[in-house]
From TrEMBL:
Superkingdom of source: Eukaryota
GO BP field: poly(A)+ mRNA export from nucleus; protein import into nucleus; transcription-dependent tethering of RNA polymerase II gene DNA at nuclear periphery
Residue ranges of every copy of the Nucleoporin Nup133/Nup155-like N-terminal domain listed in the record: 45-466
Protein name: Nucleoporin Nup133/Nup155-like C-terminal domain-containing protein
Family annotation (Pfam families): Nucleoporin_C, Nucleoporin_N
Keyword Nucleus: yes
A cellular component annotation (GO) from this entry: nuclear pore outer ring
Record keywords: mRNA transport, Nucleus, Protein transport, Translocation, Transport
Family: Belongs to the nucleoporin Nup133 family.
GO molecular function, one term: structural constituent of nuclear pore
Residues in Nucleoporin Nup133/Nup155-like C-terminal domain copies: 703-1007
Location(s) in or outside the cell: Nucleus envelope
Length: 1136
C-alpha cells in the first residue's frame, strides 16, 4: 500500500530547526558559498569544501520518530540507493520506500506491511533497478534473515497489487543451516543480489529470467566454513569466529555478459567471482575465481606501529578505485588494533592495492584521523562515490572525508606509472551529535551539475542527512591554500561552522583538543578580522540593514567565544581577549549607529558630523553612503571615530546629554558589559591596557564628564531616572577601564604607571563628587567597594556624618572592615591622617588589630601617631623605637623636637626595660637606652650652645650669621681652614637643624672658650664619647685635645714659675681652660688615654701643620707632658 502525499509543511514547523539554503534574508545562515545542488534542503553546516544538509522528504516511519510521541519507535535499518534515488527504512511492522530527493516534505511513500512472523526477526530490504521503460519505479527485495525467504517486487508502485497473488516466481528461499542467518545483502545487478551469512556463506540470488521477467533462483558462491558445517548440528548459536565475517560485497567490472562480484571478509580474504549471464541464468566459473589473503601484504607495510607491538588487523570495507588508464585498483578500509604494554590503540587505514591474476601489489596506505566514535565494537564503513576523488568513512557518528591521492597511479602514454611528487591531500571530519541515531547509509555519484559526490545518512530522529563534497574547480584550486592539511585552515573552518550554524541541532562542531595555542590564535584572529571587515564568506554578501549587520557580526563573535571556551579548556583565557576586544567595538558601533539612525533632527546632525570626519580622515573610499560603509567595513576604527566626534561636539557646545549617550554606548554598553561577561571575573585572564588607550578617548571622556557633571555644571535642567542610571553606568565604566590598565602596568612595571595612577586619583574625586552631588550615595559606595577604591569609600562614609548619626556611620565602617579587612581599614586610617582626624583614630580604633598593622607598615610616614598608639597599648619598646626613628628623620630636623623625641624615647625604653626585667630582651633595651642618652647629650649640648649665642642677640636668630660668629666667637688662634669647615654647615646650626656629631665637635672647638663658653671643650669631649665607631671616636677625641692644648691657654706663662709664688702659680693653673675642661671629666675617663697618646706622639714627631708643631715645641721645651700629668693629679685630688 502507499501513503498519499500531504500539503507541504513549513520547514520552520519541523521538530528540528534548520537553515534553509534558499532564503535570501539578512540572516547569518544564508551564506555566500555557491550551492551546486538542486535538492539541498536545509543547510546544517557548510564551508568551501562540503555541505551538510537535511533533505525535506520524510516517510511515515521517519516522520513519526521525529515527533516527541514517537521517539521510542523502532527502526531496524535502511539505506539510500544512488541509482534509483529512492530510499527505504525497515520497521518492526512495515517497510517504507520513498523518493528521498523529493522536495515534498511528505513525499509519496510506499509502505510494505510485514507479517507477525517477520516482525519477530530482522528483515533486510534492497531496492532494484526499474524493470524497463514502462515504469521508472524501483523494485524491492525483502529478505527474512532467519528464515531465508526472499521475495521480489518488480515495481514498488505495483507491488501492493502483486502482493495479493502468491506467485512462486517472485519468491525463493536461501537454504540456511541450523544456527545460520543472513547478515549482509548487496545489489549486484544485473546478476541479482548477493547475501552473506554468519557462517561466511555467500549466495547469489538471481531475480530475472532470460526474458527479464521476475524469476528467483540461488547460486552458492562460497560454502560455509568446514568447522561450521560440522558443528552446526549441535548448536543453533554457532557462528563464525568473533569478528570474522563478510564485510563487503561489491560489483566489480563487466565484460559483455560476464560480471565480476567481489567478496571481502574481515580477516583479509579477498575473492573475485566471474558470473556469466549469457543464458539468462547466472553461472559462476569457480576456476577463474581470484582468491587472496590480503593481511600478510598489509601487516609488513604498516607505518606508525611501534616495533614489537602485537597487532590485530581487520578489513572493514573495500571499494573499486577508478583511475584513468589503470585497472584492478582498490581502496580498502582497514582497522588496526595494536597492543603495547597492555594498552590497546585502534587506527584506521585507507590502503591502496592492485589485485589481479598476477597477485597483490600494495601501493600505499594513509592513516585516518582518530575520532572519539572509534571503539572496538565500532564498524566503520567506506564509500567512494564517483568520480572517486574523495573517500567517505563513517565511524559511529563521525564522517571522515579525505581526498584520495591518485595521480601517481595514472599511467603515461607508454602504459607505465607516471612519477609525481606527493602533495598533501585535504581531509576533514564531520561530527554528528551523540543523540543522532543513524539507521541507514547510502551515497550519490557526481552527476553533472545536479548532484555532487555525497554520503546519505538516514537517521531515526533527524531525518535524512546528506554530506556532499564540492568538486574542485579551476578557480577553487587557484584559491586553495598551499597546504590543505594546514591545521589553522581546518580549525578556522570548524570554528566558522560552529559560529554561523549554531542552530543546527544535529551537528557537533566541537573539535578534539589537539591544536596548539598558536594555531588557535591564528584561526581566531582570521575569523575576527573577517567578521569585523564583513569579509567572511559565511556572512551574507550584503545587508539591507546596517543594524542587522552589526548585530549579526556581534552575535557571531559571541558564539566564537563560547566555542573557544568549550573546546580549548587549557588555554582559552589566552585566546578570547582578542575576540572580546572586537566584540566591544561592534557593540559600541551598534549603539552609535542607533543614535545616528533614529531619524531625529539631532541624529541628522550627528550623522553629518560623522560624515565630515570620515571624509577628512579618508577612512572609507569613495562611496554613495560612506557612513554605512564605515560601519560595515571599517568598524575596527570606531575608537578613532568616536574620539574625533566627541572633540568636534565639545568644541561646538553640543548637548551634554547627547555626548553622555555616546559615552554610555561605547564605555558601558560596548566595553564594560562585555568585559564583565567574559573577562573581568576570569582570574586566568591577565589585565591588559585596553584598546581605548590607543587614542585619547578617555581623556576626552573625562573632560566631557567634568563638563556635564562637575560641581559648577548646569548641563541638566532636570535629572531624570535615566540620567541617574547613565551617571552610575559611566562612573562604573571609567573606574573599570583605568583600574584594569593600572593593574596591567603594575604587572609589567610600566614606566607610565605613575602618571596613570595620578590621573586616576585626580579623576576619581570628580566621579565620586558627581555621584554625591546627585544624591547617589549608595551607588557611589557600591562602585567604590566594587573597584576597591577604599580611600573614596572612607571619604563617602565620613561625608554621611553630616546627615546620619555617627553611630550608624561607625557601624557601616565596622561592617566594611569586617568584610574587607586590612585593605579597607588601611585606607580609612589614611583618610583620617590626611583629613587631620588623628584623634578619631586614637580614640575609636585604639584596640583595632588593623591599626597596629597599619602603623607598623607606615611607621616612618605616621610615626607621630604610631608612638602614641604604642603608648596607649603599653607597648613601650615599640614606642621607643618609633620615637628614636622619628628623632633621626629629616622631617624632624629641628633640635627642639628632636630633644623631645629622644627624651620620650629614653623614658619609654626605661619603662619597657622595667616591664621586661630579667628577660633576654632587657639587654637590648639597655643598649637602646644608652644610645638614646648619647644622642640626647649631643642634642642638649648643641641646643645649649645655640641658646648662649642667641642670648647675645636677644634671641633674634636672623642675626646669628657666620660673619657675626666669626667676628665675636671664633678662637683667633685657629687657622683659616677651621673657619671654612664651620662655615659649610653654620646655617644649619643657626636654624637649629640637626648637626652630625663631627660637625658639632668642629663648631665647639672653634669657639673661643671664655665666659659662658668656657666649657665648650669639655662639651666637645662629651660629644665625642657618644660616637659609636671607635676609630671616629679616637680621631675626634685627639682633635679636641690638640686644639685644647694649642689654641686656648698660654703655656709659656703658665710654665714660667721662676718669679711667682706657689699661690700665684697654682692660681694660673686653675684658671686655665685645660684645668676647667679636665675638672668636668671623670677621673677614669677614656679620653685621658688618647691625651697621653697625643703627647707621646708629639714628643717623638714634630708634626706637619702649625698647631702640631706648636704642640711638639711645648712638649719638648716646656715639659707640657709633665704639666698635664700634674694638672690631672690636681683635678683628681679636688674631685675626691
Amino acid at each position: 500500500m502507499f501513503k498519499p502525499r500531504k500539503f507541504d509543511r513549513d520547514p520552520s514547523l519541523a521538530s528540528v530547526k534548520y537553515s534553509n539554503v534558499d532564503l535570501t534574508t539578512d540572516s547569518a545562515q544564508s551564506t555566500s558559498f555557491f550551492n551546486t545542488t538542486a535538492f539541498a534542503g536545509w543547510e546544517l553546516t557548510k564551508n568551501d569544501k562540503y555541505c551538510v544538509s537535511r533533505l525535506p522528504a520524510l516517510p511515515v516511519l521517519l516522520e513519526s520518530t521525529m515527533d516527541a510521541d514517537g521517539a521510542d519507535e523502532i527502526i531496524f535499518n535502511g539505506y539510500a540507493d544512488h541509482a534509483t534515488k529512492f530510499a527505504l527504512v525497515v520497521g518492526p511492522k512495515a517497510i517504507n520506500v520513498w523518493p528521498y530527493r523529493s522536495t515534498d516534505t511528505s513525499p509519496l511513500t510506499f509502505e510494505f506491511p510485514l507479517g507477525d512472523a517477520q516482525s519477530q526477526e530482522l528483515t533486510l530490504a534492497i531496492l532494484t533497478r526499474p524493470s524497463g521503460p514502462v515504469t521508472m519505479d524501483p523494485g524491492l527485495v525483502i529478505i527474512e534473515t532467519i528464515q531465508g525467504r526472499v521475495r521480489f517486487y518488480e515495481s514498488v508502485q505495483h507491488a501492493p497489487a502483486l502482493g495479493i497473488i502468491n506467485s512462486a516466481n517472485i519468491e525463493t528461499r536461501v537454504d540456511l543451516k541450523n544456527g545460520e542467518y543472513i547478515t549482509l545483502a548487496e545489489n549486484v545487478e544485473p546478476a541479482g543480489i548477493v547475501v552473506a551469512t554468519n557462517f561466511k556463506r555467500v549466495v547469489l540470488v538471481s531475480l530475472r529470467d532470460v526474458q527479464g521477467s521476475p524469476s528467483l533462483s540461488t547460486v552458492e558462491l562460497t560454502g560455509p566454513l568446514r568447522a561450521l558445517r560440522l558443528f552446526s548440528f549441535f548448536s543453533s548459536k554457532t557462528g563464525s569466529e568473533a569478528g570474522d565475517e563478510i564485510v563487503n560485497i561489491r560489483l566489480g567490472g563487466s565484460n559483455g555478459n560476464e560480471q565480476e562480484i567481489i567478496v571481502q571478509d574481515s580477516k583479509g580474504t579477498y575473492k573475485k567471482f566471474y558470473c556469466n549471464l549469457a543464458n539468462g541464468r547466472a553461472f559462476v566459473d569457480h576456476k577463474k575465481t581470484l582468491h587472496y589473503n590480503l593481511t600478510p601484504y598489509l601487516e609488513n607495510n604498516i607505518d606508525g606501529i611501534i616495533p614489537g607491538a602485537l597487532i590485530n588487523t581487520k578489513f572493514v570495507g573495500i571499494w573499486n578505485l577508478n583511475v584513468a588508464g589503470a585497472k584492478n585498483l582498490h581502496t580498502a578500509l582497514v582497522s588496526v588494533e595494536s597492543f603495547i604494554n597492555g594498552t590497546a590503540e585502534i587506527i584506521l587505514l585507507l590502503v591502496t592495492l592492485k589485485i589481479d591474476q598476477s597477485g597483490v601489489l600494495l601501493y600505499g596506505s594513509h592513516q585516518l584521523p582518530k575520532t572519539p566514535s572509534l571503539k572496538e565494537d565500532t564498524k566503520p564503513q567506506l564509500f567512494i562515490p564517483s568520480p572517486g576523488a574523495t573517500a567517505f568513512v563513517v565511524v559511529g557518528n563521525s564522517v571522515i572525508m579525505t581526498d584520495l591521492n591518485t595521480p601517481f597511479l595514472q599511467q603515461n602514454d607508454l602504459g607505465e606509472p607516471s612519477f609525481t611528487y606527493f602533495k598533501p591531500q585535504w581531509e576533514d571530519v564531520v561530527k554528528l551529535k551523540p543523540t543522532v541515531e543513524i539507521v541507514g547509509l547510502g551515497y550519490e555519484n557526481l552527476e553533472g551539475k545536479s548532484t555532487n559526490p555525497s554520503l546519505v545518512l538516514i537517521t531515526k530522529n533527524y531525518g535524512v542527512l546528506r554530506v556532499e563534497r564540492f568538486p574542485e574547480t579551476t578557480q577553487s584550486k587557484l584559491q586553495q591554500v598551499r597546504d590543505p592539511t594546514d591545521p589553522v585552515y581546518l580549525l578556522k573552518s570548524h570554528m566558522q561552522q560552529a559560529v554561523f550554524y549554531r542552530l543546527s541541532e544535529a551537528m557537533d562542531f566541537d573539535v578534539d583538543p589537539i591544536y596548539l595555542l598558536e594555531d588557535v590564535n591564528a584561526g581566531v584572529k582570521s575569523i575576527v578580522d573577517e567578521v569585523m571587515n564583513s569579509l567572511s564568506s559565511s556572512l551574507p554578501p550584503i545587508f539591507s540593514s546596517t543594524r542587522d549587520s552589526l548585530l549579526t557580526r556581534a552575535n557571531a563573535l559571541r558564539e566564537l567565544v563560547v566555542f573557544v571556551q568549550g573546546n580549548f579548556v587549557e588555554f582559552w583565557p589566552l585566546v578570547i581577549p582578542q575576540i572580546v576586544d572586537a566584540l566591544e567595538k561592534l557593540d559600541a558601533a551598534q549603539h552609535l549607529w542607533a543614535l545616528i539612525d533614529s531619524g531625529s533632527a539631532e541624529a541628522a546632525l550627528l550623522k553629518e558630523r560623522i560624515t565630515t570626519i570620515i571624509q577628512e580622515s579618508r577612512y572609507v573610499a569613495s562611496s554613495t553612503d560612506i557612513v554605512r560603509s564605515f560601519f560595515t567595513y571599517e568598524v575596527e576604527k570606531i575608537d578613532i571615530l568616536t574620539t574625533e566626534l566627541l572633540k568636534s561636539l565639545q568644541s561646538s557646545n553640543y548637548s551634554d546629554r547627547t555626548v553622555i549617550k555616546i559615552l554610555i554606548g561605547v564605555l558601558y554598553e560596548g566595553v564594560l558589559k562585555n568585559e564583565a561577561r567574559y573577562v573581568s571575573d576570569v582570574p586566568e585572564i591577565k589585565p591588559t591596557k585596553h584598546w581605548l588607550y590607543k587614542t585619547d578617548l578617555l581623556d576626552v571622556a573625562c573632560t566631557a564628564f567634568q563638563k556635564a557633571y562637575g560641581s559648577s555644571s548646569r548641563a541638566f535642567d532636570t535629572f531624570s531616572s535615566q540620567d541617574r542610571l547613565d551617571l552610575v553606568s559611566l562612573c562604573e565604566a571609567l573606574y573599570y577601564t583605568i583600574t584594569r590598565a593600572i593593574q596591567a602596568m603594575q604587572d609589567k612595571d610600566d614606566h607610565n604607571l605613575a602618571s596613570y595612577v595620578n590621573w586616576y586619583r585626580t579623576n576619581r574625586k570628580v566621579w565620586i563628587a558627581a555621584l554625591l552631588k546627585h544624591g547617589l550615595v549608595e551607588e557611589a559606595k557600591a562602585i567604590a567597594e566594587k573597584f576597591q577604591d577604599f580611600f573614596s569609600l572612607a571619604y563617602i562614609l565620613e561625608t554621611e556624618r553630616d546627615s546620619i548619626p555617627n553611630d550608624v556611620v561607625d557601624n557601616q565602617i565596622n561592617q566594611y572592615i569586617e568584610v574587607h579587612g586590612y585593605e579597607f581599614a588601611s585606607k580609612l586610617f589614611e583618610h583620617y591622617m590626611k583629613a587631620d582626624q588623628v584623634q578619631r583614630i586614637l580614640l575609636n580604633y585604639k584596640h583595632n588589630k588593623y591599626l597596629d598593622q597599619f602603623l607598623r607598615a607606615n611607621s616612618k610616614r605616621h610615626a607621630q601617631v604610631a608612638w602614641i598608639h604604642h603608648l596607649q597599648c603599653k607597648d613601650f619598646e615599640n614606642a621607643s623605637k618609633v620615637l628614636n626613628s622619628l628623632a633621626s628623620r629629616k622631617e624632624t630636623d629641628n633640635q627642639e623636637n628632636r630633644e623631645l623625641c629622644l627624651s620620650l624615647a629614653k623614658l619609654t625604653a626605661i619603662a619597657a626595660k622595667f616591664d621586661q626585667h630579667g628577660t633576654p630582651n632587657a639587654m637590648n633595651l639597655e643598649y637602646s637606652i644608652i644610645e638614646t642618652e648619647n644622642n640626647l647629650v649631643a642634642v642638649r649640648i648643641q641646643n645649649h650652645l645655640h641658646e648662649i649665642l642667641s642670648g647675645f642677640v636677644q634671641n633674634k636668630k636672623e642675626l646669628i650669621t657666620m660673619e657675626y660668629f666669626q667676628q665675636n666667637f671664633v678662637n683667633p688662634n685657629l687657622g683659616e681652614g677651621a673657619t671654612e669647615e664651620v662655615s659649610s654647615f653654620f646655617d644649619r646650626f643657626a636654624n637649629q637643624k640637626v648637626l652630625t656629631k663631627e660637625q658639632l665637635i668642629a663648631i665647639l672647638t672653634s669657639v673661643k672658650p671664655i665666659g659662658q663658653l668656657k666649657l665648650v671643650f669639655s662639651d666637645a669631649l662629651k660629644v665625642s664619647l657618644t660616637i659609636e665607631n671607635d676609630l671616629v671616636f679616637q680621631e675626634q677625641a685627639t682633635k679636641v685635645w690638640l686644639r685644647l692644648l694649642t689654641t686656648t691657654d698660654d703655656w709659656d706663662k703658665i710654665t714660667d714659675t721662676s718669679e711667682n709664688t706657689d699661690d700665684v702659680n697654682k692660681a694660673k693653673v686653675r684658671d686655665s681652660i685645660f684645668f676647667h675642661t679636665l675638672s668636668q671629666l671623670e677621673g677614669n675617663s677614656e679620653h685621658f688615654k688618647y691625651l697621653d697618646v697625643l703627647l707621646s706622639n708629639a714628643e717623638k714627631n714634630p708634626g706637619g701643620d702649625a698647631i702640631e708643631k706648636k704642640l711638639h715645641r711645648l712638649v719638648t721645651e716646656k715639659s707640657l707632658k709633665l704639666w698635664v700629668e700634674s694638672i690631672k693629679a690636681d683635678v683628681i685630688a679636688l674631685t675626691r
